[in-house]
UniProtKB/TrEMBL annotation:
<feature type="domain" description="Laminin EGF-like">
    <location>
        <begin position="842"/>
        <end position="887"/>
    </location>
</feature>
<feature type="compositionally biased region" description="Low complexity">
    <location>
        <begin position="1434"/>
        <end position="1444"/>
    </location>
</feature>
<feature type="coiled-coil region">
    <location>
        <begin position="1668"/>
        <end position="1849"/>
    </location>
</feature>
<keyword id="KW-0272">Extracellular matrix</keyword>
<dbReference type="InterPro" id="IPR013015">
    <property type="entry name" value="Laminin_IV_B"/>
</dbReference>
<feature type="disulfide bond">
    <location>
        <begin position="1191"/>
        <end position="1203"/>
    </location>
</feature>
<feature type="disulfide bond">
    <location>
        <begin position="557"/>
        <end position="566"/>
    </location>
</feature>
<feature type="disulfide bond">
    <location>
        <begin position="844"/>
        <end position="861"/>
    </location>
</feature>
<dbReference type="InterPro" id="IPR050440">
    <property type="entry name" value="Laminin/Netrin_ECM"/>
</dbReference>
<feature type="disulfide bond">
    <location>
        <begin position="1212"/>
        <end position="1221"/>
    </location>
</feature>
<dbReference type="GO" id="GO:0007155">
    <property type="term" value="P:cell adhesion"/>
</dbReference>
<feature type="disulfide bond">
    <location>
        <begin position="1241"/>
        <end position="1258"/>
    </location>
</feature>
<feature type="disulfide bond">
    <location>
        <begin position="290"/>
        <end position="299"/>
    </location>
</feature>
<feature type="disulfide bond">
    <location>
        <begin position="1239"/>
        <end position="1251"/>
    </location>
</feature>
<feature type="disulfide bond">
    <location>
        <begin position="842"/>
        <end position="854"/>
    </location>
</feature>
<feature type="disulfide bond">
    <location>
        <begin position="796"/>
        <end position="813"/>
    </location>
</feature>
<dbReference type="Pfam" id="PF21199">
    <property type="entry name" value="LAMININ_IV_B"/>
</dbReference>
Length: 1893
């Protein structure tokens, strides 16, 4: 196994290392990290490091020696130091002696750890440990990724997880990185070579992103530590220092493999030794050989000068290589700046350092100040930056020039930047009108003084530079024209007007025109921005050209493109993605073995394919794709999407293009040669798509065929099993063929397209996040290829799509459930029925259909032969038992049957039963189809038939012999036709409408006695049970009780003697004497059925065998004795303590009168029992003599409402006490209405263990404090209980501090009071006192009582006031109603006015907007002004229309007001009535509100049926609104409460205990398995016994068969002799004697010899005539003998018949034995099946701890299988065995009968022999007769011997049968026990999984 594992590991290492870093992430080969690091593996405990140590093994199964020596002072050396067990021994070597080396810890040490320290970061994939000893009972694995500074736990392992690692969830991990505890590797077995395996990424868990930070952190380690925390001690739980205990328990590990590789973040495929580490063969090195421009021990940083992108780990096909900084050859140092990276949209973040050659900037792309770029030199030229040649006085900043040439921004490299009043190429002269250029003048030059100049003689002298506020041209000598500039100030450069010589305006950069009043082409929106106009920026693909409207910038869009820039797709259309032209492999034409592999849609799962699925391609197969939808003639890249199925590359795949004809030379594809259309490639296993190296040039409007051939999986070898899944062929337009990417202008787009890897983002099925710039450029490509948006609209399917609008990028419609396709027009595979709800699942039956897919239209699955239905889940009509369909068997009486059970449906012809095989009730016959024909079902005539009204039987049958119809009469009827009443019933069923009714005798007659009641009248004639009357409804005289209950008892009398003196005895005497007294005859009898412990009357006189005075005697009343000393009275014995003596008229001695009908004594209150001898339920204290008192047990705090009947003590719940459980228990405290808590007082610090019952504060000893008196008080020192006072000094200081603290607290309270209630709040107490005084005065004033006259006057005044108030109230109600109506009308008018006001405000706002527009018109061009004027005109017109529209509203408002006033006047009278009705409704609602109560809610939730008015302190279980504690928590529930909250808490506690019971379930399951195994053993024994019995039965059969043959031969010989000529009387007599004597035959040969001998002897007889004459008188006797012989022959025939019956019985026994043998074999098979199932159950139970949610279902399934399979088969075995026993018993009975007949024959033989002896004559005849008699005697002896053997065989067979029966009984009992245990397991599992009972 280890060798195979090694090969697998090496294979994985080689396969994982075959990655190429150029195509994406790459990782070094994995290996064992322990190799070469033996010294880095340490253990906290190793045996024998100090001196040799002895250790032992638990059992000496390995070697003869049980104990050994460990000496680890020196390393392990074979043959020299083999007892060394250092940690380095665990490093796997795969040598032959690998089981001779191991690491071992010290004896008895439980806490041991192994630690591996690595020199760098490594990836850990898994850990494997093989133990020599038992695996640890508890251990954990930890990791560190910071060289041991911090540690994190990987996994816990424990035999008992809750005990070893409490709080850690015990289950299989549900997500990667989850820390759990498992028990799989902590079992006791195996005792050696047990493994512990840990995988960092379990294969069962889905890793969504294998390159995520979480996964990397989980794999990365620098240190690994394995902590062993608990040993398996095999029951020796307590380790002590005894050597024998410690020597047996330790940890020992054979091998440990730490599988991993060096951690390089996907940037290296190999690793090198770390500096200072000596390499070893097979060692996994720790220093990465970094690729992708990275560096560091783990490639954790970018190389120097490769900081243009942030360092990132490689991910899949993304290398994330570090990018070289672009410093234009002016620097060799740079750094990464995150802010710059974000500012550039995450494109570039590199910043160059120390720029040379007078450069600066992030990329050294700019020149330093006072330098400019030479436009004729490359940016990388060292002499790129030249010094500025500017006058330092006239140029800004002392000589600065423009640094570069930029026509777009009107920049010219080297052009000097002059000051405001300076001009010239070098800024070396003043502008016109300025002079005196100085360096310190920020404007350069000063203004020249103005001198008026007249051009004409008539020009006024006041002419100046400013005319009417207009800017003027400055004076220029020789220029004849001076006038105002006509420049647009918005388009003119800052502080410049026009040229002083030409008058041309100086425009802004993007402005043109003589007056700077228009934008240059490609720009729009003349405004006051710095450049003057904004660029059009039209989309290069969506717009026809780059020009736009000068006013609004709207570009000229292609069809279906919209937006100002034409960069958006018109709604309802879409732009294609680069992979739009894809062709599914499922739709292509296949050649060779190319099967379709459909894939189901899994909700929530990611689809890694397009279309319905794949094509499974084999070697030599191919697909042909028809291409006829090329939108534009250009080059297209060919992309193959696939899914590999094998670990290696598919070496040879060919792609061939077939064109429709010759390519024209003028075509764009004119340069294509034939070899360009034949391509080949390979498909690597680590990818999902492949781009062909050369594109195909395709022309629009032509049809092509592309053939993809999968030629060879591995070159040079044929592999028929090689397969690959082909998804689709994609034509991707090559972007370099698109015009916008061509030329110098397209170069920048190409660079961006490649920089963002736009094409690569669209190639896989699962696309990454597409950068917005890629989406924009792809949208432009789509617009060019399709002249705008896609020529066809979205065309989303109305049923399959959720919307008719598709995604504008790609055109994907939003699909409904289980719908796929770009248009959402197809159902997913395995679904059907495209409709408004999407598609439904096929749900094809797995056993009835070929696969899980169905017809997408009607959902029809592909059925297997015999299956039927849409889902292939049923049989065809008239068939059943799916999937093994059988034809319905209804005996021709039904057309169909149940498809599951086969039961016939709608049986005809009066038939019934599962197969219409019986007649329905009321009919008889045999409707089954059989060879002899069927008998139709005929109506039962019992007696008149079903429809006659005189049918008194539901069933009947036909006697097979007499053919008579026998009715099964209903109760009360009898007779063959049920036409008579049965005994116990009366009536006349013979007349129409007649019936039989039960005699109403109260069950007091014999129902089988026909004369017990009158058969016509029903009168009771023979009453039983001491009853009488026509209905036997009363007790006879001398009896009492209830006659209807057969409870008539004889009246009991007490005959009392006047001389007897009775007394009340105590309890102890009663216990001693209560059960014994004597009756009239001296026998012991029970005196009373009174309750134990209460006194009865008894006589003082001693008892004797013949008492002097009779005490009691049941039965009839004896005659009253004469004399005055005795009296006789009917009475009952009643308990004196519980009987009401007044009503019972009790006498001395407890003799009372009771009810004559029931015998009930009259009881005191709450006393019950016929003798009043016990308290009623929930009552006690019968000994009081006043009746019983109520227990009054608290319903919440007690376990039951019943108390102790002697002391009244209730059974309290834990924590409660007192007689009625209304107090807390001793040593408990709290409010017993809610919860009692244990005091837990410290016995050392408390005076008593009972705390304060209200607060829980324990009573502390002096110097002790704390709630539990468990700490020394303030002012003392020391430890409890030694608390020593600190001294007087501390006490004085403490008193001062406490005083200051109290004063401070008081002042703080006052301050808080003022803060919360203001200054008056500080005087609340005073105000309260004043209020109390006022209330007292008011009470005094109200306390005086006026006289009668005053009262009458007050009442009169009050009545008057009431009348006035009512009148006023009515008036006010009317006015109020009127005002209410008016208010509503006024509110409506106000709303209209508000609306008008709003409209006017809008008009004002519009006017303000007009003003602003006018102002803006003054400062803008005429075109915009005109547009603004038109907009203002339109707004003005709209405002006028709105104002005009308000007039109708005002008129309507006026009419509304008038109508409101009219209605007020008309309906004044109705207002009052309406108001009263409303008041009544309000009062009713208030009453309903008052009736609302939270009583039921409080009872259900908290457990206390109280309402919201009950104070919280009186609520035992709390209620809504009650709070306790700080911070406040809802007071609801508690101990003793049964509300939902408390039930939920209880359920939670039960759930927490569920895990603890799981181990019990597992142990119980193991016990069940042992029981079943024992049952199997017993069954094997039973099988052996049955086999023995079968063998014996066969022997018996063979013997009887031989005897049968002998009987037949003998009878033939006898018949021949009797018919022969020598058959004289003597011979006949001899033969008769032979027949009579030889009841059981010889062998056939013996019989033949015997017949011959007799015949010869007869022939030798002489003197026959003489003998006849001599015996003439005996002729009659001979005739008689002949008759006897004939009779003997008949008897012999009978014996033959009997023997034949015995033979048949034995044959039947043999058949039964075969059946029994087959039944035993079936039982054996069933037991084997059961054992197999139980083995599966055992494995399932072992995982029950981790799969608790599945345990219940699996156990239920197991139970069903055992019940459904083993139960019926076992029952059948029992029936077969019973049948065999019955047949064997019948055979034995026949054998016994045969033996009896043989005994009769033997008697007759003896009689015949006696007669022959009497009639024989001397001579030879006598000798022959003697010889014949001897032979007959020998034959009889032989027969007797055979009978003995037969009897012994019978006994043996009986014994074996009994043994078989015993074994069968034992097996039945075992099965019953197994089913009981399984039921318990199921119940427990249900309880634990649902927390219910």
């Amino acid at each position: 196994m280890w060798a195979a594992l090694a090969y697998c590991v090496l294979f994985l290492a080689v396969s994982t290392s075959a990655q190429n870093c150029d195509n994406g992430s790459c990782y070094p080969a994995t290996g064992d990290l322990l190799v070469g690091r033996e010294k880095n593996l340490t253990a906290s405990s190793t045996c024998g490091t100090q001196n040799p140590t002895q250790y032992c093994i638990v059992s000496h199964l390995q070697d003869i020696t049980k104990c050994f020596i460990c000496d680890s002072r020196q390393p392990y050396r074979e043959y020299y130091n083999e007892n060394s067990h250092r940690p380095e021994n665990m490093v796997t070597t795969f040598t032959e002696n690998r089981r001779k080396t191991w690491w071992q810890s010290m004896n008895g040490v439980e806490s041991v750890h192994l630690q591996l320290d690595l020199e760098a970061e490594f990836h850990l994939t898994h850990l494997i440990m093989t133990f020599k000893t038992f695996r640890p009972a508890a251990m954990l694995i930890e990791r560190s990724s910071d060289f041991g500074r911090t540690w994190q736990v990987y996994r816990y392992f424990a035999y008992n997880c809750p005990e070893s690692f409490p709080g850690v969830p015990q289950r299989l991990p549900q997500r990667i990185g989850e820390v759990v505890c498992i028990s799989r590797y902590s079992q006791v077995e195996p005792s050696t070579e047990g493994e512990v395996i840990y995988r960092v990424l379990p294969p069962a868990l889905e890793v969504v992103d294998p390159y995520s930070q979480e996964v990397r952190d989980l794999l990365r380690i620098t240190n690994l530590r394995i902590n062993f925390t608990k040993l398996h001690t095999l029951g020796d739980e307590l380790l002590d220092n005894r050597p024998k205990i410690r020597e047996k328990y330790y940890y020992a590990v054979y091998d440990m493999i730490v599988r991993g590789n060096c951690f390089c973040y996907g940037h290296a495929e190999t690793c090198e030794p770390v500096d200072g580490v000596t390499p070893v063969e097979g060692m996994v090195h720790g220093k990465c050989a970094c690729k992708h421009n990275t560096k560091g021990l783990n490639c954790e940083a970018c190389q120097d000068f490769f900081n243009d992108q942030p360092w990132r780990p490689a991910r899949g096909r993304e290398t994330n290589a570090c990018k070289r900084c672009n410093c234009n050859s002016h620097s060799n140092k740079c750094h990464f700046d995150p802010a710059v990276y974000e500012q550039t949209g995450r494109v570039s973040g590199g910043v160059c350092d120390d720029c040379q050659h007078n450069t600066m900037g992030r990329n050294c792309e700019e020149c330093k100040p006072f330098y400019y770029q030479d436009p004729n030199k490359d940016i990388r030229d060292p002499n790129i930056c030249l010094p500025c040649d500017c006058d330092p006085d006239g140029a800004v900043n002392g000589g600065e020039c423009e640094s570069r040439t930029d026509p777009a921004n009107n920049l010219v490299a080297g052009r000097c930047i002059c000051k405001r009043n300076v001009d010239g190429e070098r800024c070396d002269r003043c502008r016109g009108g300025y002079w005196n250029m100085r360096a310190d003048n920020p404007e350069g030059c000063e203004a020249t003084p103005l001198v008026p100049h007249k051009l004409h003689a008539d020009e006024p002298e006041s002419s100046s530079w400013l005319r009417q506020g207009q800017p003027m041209w400055p004076y220029v000598p020789g220029l004849r024209q001076n006038g105002p500039c006509q420049c647009n100030p918005i388009g003119t450069s800052r502080d410049q007007t026009c040229d002083p010589r030409t008058g041309d305006c100086i425009c802004k950069r993007h402005v043109t025109g003589k007056n700077c009043d228009s934008c240059v082409p490609g720009f729009f929106g003349l405004s006051d921005i710095e450049e003057g106009c904004r660029p059009c920026d039209c989309d290069p693909g969506g717009a026809i050209d780059s020009q736009c409207n000068q006013l609004d910038g709207q570009c000229k869009c292609r069809p279906h493109m919209t937006g100002r820039r034409c960069d958006e797709v018109q709604p309802g259309f879409y732009a294609i993605n680069l992979d739009n032209y894809k062709y599914e492999a499922e739709d292509a034409l296949p050649n060779g073995e190319a099967q379709i592999d459909m894939r189901q849609c899994v909700p929530g799962a990611t689809r890694t394919w397009t279309g319905p699925g794949f094509r499974s391609m084999r070697e030599g197969s191919s697909l042909e794709f028809t291409i006829n939808n090329i939108p534009m003639s250009m080059e297209y890249d060919i992309v193959i999407r696939y899914e590999p199925q094998l670990p290696d590359s598919w070496d040879e795949v060919g792609v061939t293009l077939t064109r429709p004809g010759i390519i024209e030379t003028s075509s764009i594809c004119g340069n294509t040669i034939p070899s360009d259309d034949v391509l080949s490639t390979s498909l690597p296993p680590g990818s999902r798509y492949r781009v062909m190296a050369t594109p195909f040039c395709l022309e629009e409007m032509k049809e092509y065929t592309i053939k993809v051939e999968f030629r060879s999986y591995q070159s040079g070898r044929t592999n028929p099993q090689a397969a690959i899944l082909f998804d689709s062929l994609v034509l991707v337009p090559r972007y370099t063929s698109v015009p916008i990417f061509q030329g110098q202008e397209g170069q920048s787009r190409r660079d961006e397209f490649e920089r963002y890897r736009c094409q690569e983002n669209y190639l896989p099925v699962l696309k990454p996040q597409i950068p917005p710039i890629c989406k924009s450029m792809v949208r432009s490509i789509s617009a060019i290829m399709h002249n705008g948006g896609m020529r066809t609209p979205c065309n989303c399917d109305v049923n399959g799509a959720e919307s008719t609008v598709c995604d504008p990028e790609g055109g994907q419609c939003p699909c409904r459930n289980n719908v796929i396709g770009q248009r959402c027009d197809m159902c997913c595979p395995a679904t059907f029925g495209l409709g408004p709800q999407g598609c439904r699942a096929c749900d094809c039956d797995a056993s009835g259909s070929r696969d899980l897919f169905c017809n997408p239209s009607n959902g029809q699955c592909l059925c297997n032969p015999g299956a039927y239905g849409r889902r292939c889940n049923r049989c065809q009509d008239n068939f059943w038992n799916f999937p093994n369909c059988q034809r319905c068997n209804c005996n021709g009486h039904a057309d169909r049957c149940d498809s599951v059970t086969g039961s016939c449906i709608d049986c005809r012809d009066n038939t019934a039963g599962q197969f219409c095989q019986t007649c329905k009730d009321g009919y008889y016959g045999d409707p089954r189809l059989q060879p002899g024909g069927s008998q139709p079902c005929r109506e039962c005539m019992c007696p008149g038939g079903i429809s006659s009204g005189r049918q008194f039987a539901d069933r009947c049958y036909q006697d097979p012999r007499s053919q008579a119809v026998i009715c099964n009469c209903n109760e009360g009827y009898t007779g063959p036709r049920c036409d008579s009443c049965a005994p116990g019933f009366y009536g006349n069923p013979e007349v129409p409408g007649g019936s039989c009714r039960r005699c109403e005798c109260n069950n007091n007659i014999d129902m089988t006695d026909s004369s017990a009641c009158d058969s016509r009248t029903g009168e009771c004639l023979k009453c039983l049970y001491n009853t009488e009357g026509p209905r036997c409804d009363r007790c006879q005289a001398g009896y009492y009780g209830t006659a209807k209950d057969q409870d008539c008892k004889p009246v009991s009398f007490q005959v009392l003697s006047n001389s007897l003196n009775y007394e009340e005895t105590g309890l102890n005497k009663l216990l001693r004497k209560r059960r014994e007294t004597t009756d009239l005859y001296g026998h012991y009898n029970q005196l009373s059925r009174g309750a134990l412990g209460y006194p009865f009357a008894r006589p003082r006189v001693p008892l004797s065998s013949k008492p002097r005075a009779p005490l009691a005697r049941p039965g009839p009343v004896p005659p009253r004795p004469a004399g005055p000393t005795t009296r006789q009275q009917p009475s009952c014995v009643c308990n004196m303590l519980g009987t009401d003596r007044t009503r019972a008229r009790c006498q001395d001695g407890g003799l009372c009168e009771c009810d004559r009908a029931t015998g009930q004594c009259p009881c005191l209150p709450n006393v019950v029992g016929q003798q009043c001898d016990r308290c009623a339920p929930d009552y006690w204290k019968i000994a009081s003599g006043r009746g019983c008192e109520a227990c009054s047990c608290d319903p919440v705090n007690s376990l039951s409402t019943q108390c102790n009947e002697f002391d009244g003590q209730c059974r309290c719940k834990p924590g409660f006490g007192g007689r009625t459980c209304t107090d807390c228990e001793t040593n408990y405290w709290g409010d017993p209405r809610s919860q009692c808590s244990e005091c837990n007082c410290d016995p050392l610090g408390s005076e008593t263990l009972q705390c304060d019952r209200n607060t829980g504060q324990c009573r502390c000893r002096p110097g002790v404090t704390g709630m539990k008196c468990d700490q020394c008080a303030r002012g003392t020192r020391g430890n409890l209980p030694q608390c020593v006072p600190c001294g007087e000094c501390f006490d004085n200081w403490d008193n001062i501090i406490k005083g200051l603290e109290n004063e401070t607290r008081h002042e703080l309270d006052r301050a808080k009071n003022i803060e919360s209630s203001g200054v008056p709040g500080a005087y609340d107490d005073r105000f309260k006192g004043i209020e109390d005084d006022l209330n007292a005065a008011r009470n005094l004033l109200g306390g005086g009582l006026p006289d009668g006259t005053g009262v009458q006057e007050l009442e009169a005044e009050l009545d008057g006031l009431k009348d006035q108030l009512e009148t006023q109230d009515q008036s006010l109600d009317g006015i109020e109603n009127d005002l209410g109506k008016a208010s509503q009308d006024i509110r409506g008018a106000n709303d209209d006015l508000d609306d008008l006001e709003g409209r006017l405000n809008n008009l004002n706002k519009d006017v303000d907007d007009f003003k602003k527009d006018v102002d803006r018109v003054k400062n803008t061009n005429t075109v915009e002004a005109l547009k603004s004027i038109k907009e203002a005109q339109q707004k003005s017109q709209d405002a006028q229309a709105k104002a005009d529209g308000t007039q109708p509203t005002l008129g309507e408002s006026e009419q509304t007001r008038e109508e409101a006033e009219r209605l007020m006047a008309a309906n004044t009278g109705n207002f009052g009535n309406t108001d009263n009705e409303l008041k009544n409704k309000i009062a009713e609602l208030e009453n309903q509100a008052d009736m609302l109560s939270l009583r039921e809610v409080n009872e259900k939730v908290c457990g206390d049926p109280i309402d919201e008015t009950t104070p919280c302190e009186q609520a035992k279980c709390g209620r809504a609104g009650c709070y306790s504690g700080t911070p406040q928590t809802l007071k609801c529930g508690g101990l003793g409460c049964s509300g939902a909250l408390e039930v939920a808490n209880t359920a939670k506690e039960r759930a927490e205990k569920a895990d603890a019971e799981l181990q019990k379930v597992e142990d119980e399951a193991r016990r069940v398995l042992d029981e079943v195994r024992r049952a199997k053993t017993d069954a094997d024994d039973a099988k052996t016994s049955a086999q023995n019995a079968l063998d014996r039965a066969k022997e018996v059969r063979d013997k009887f068969k031989g005897l049968d043959d002998k009987v037949n031969a003998l009878l033939e010989q006898i018949s021949a002799f009797l018919q022969g000529e020598h058959a004289d009387p003597d011979s006949v007599l001899a033969v008769a004697q032979e027949v009579l004597a030889k009841n059981i035959q010889y062998t056939p040969q013996q019989i033949l010899d015997l017949a011959k001998n007799i015949d010869e002897k007869v022939k030798t007889l002489s003197g026959v005539d003489a003998i006849l004459e001599a015996t003439e008188n005996d002729l009659k006797t001979a005739q008689d003998l002949l008759s006897a012989a004939m009779k003997a022959k008949e008897d012999a025939d009978k014996v033959k018949t009997t023997a034949e019956e015995v033979r048949q019985a034995l044959d039947a026994a043999e058949v039964a034995q075969r059946d029994a043998e087959q039944a035993i074999r079936d039982a054996q098979g069933d037991i084997d099946d059961a054992e197999g199932k139980l083995t599966g159950i055992e494995s399932e139970i072992s995982l029950a701890v981790n799969k608790i949610n599945d345990a219940s279902a699996k156990i239920a399934q197991m139970n069903n299988e055992l019940t459904n399979e083993i139960g019926p088969k076992y029952t059948k075995n029992q029936e077969n065995t019973k049948s065999a026993n019955d047949i064997a018993n019948a055979a034995m009975k026949k054998a016994n009968d045969a033996r009896s007949q043989l005994d009769d024959l033997r008697a007759k033989y003896e009689e015949a022999q006696r007669k022959v002896n009497d009639q024989s004559t001397p001579g030879d005849t006598s000798a022959q007769a003697t010889k014949l008699r001897q032979d007959a005697a020998a034959l009889a002896s032989e027969v007797q011997k055979q009978l003995t053997d037969l009897q012994n065989l019978k006994l043996s067979f009986t014994s074996q049968t009994e043994t078989l029966t015993t074994k069968t009984t034992d097996l039945t009992e075992l099965q019953r026990r197994m089913e009981t245990i399984l039921q318990e397991i199921t119940t427990k599992a249900t309880e634990y999984s649902t927390c219910t009972t």
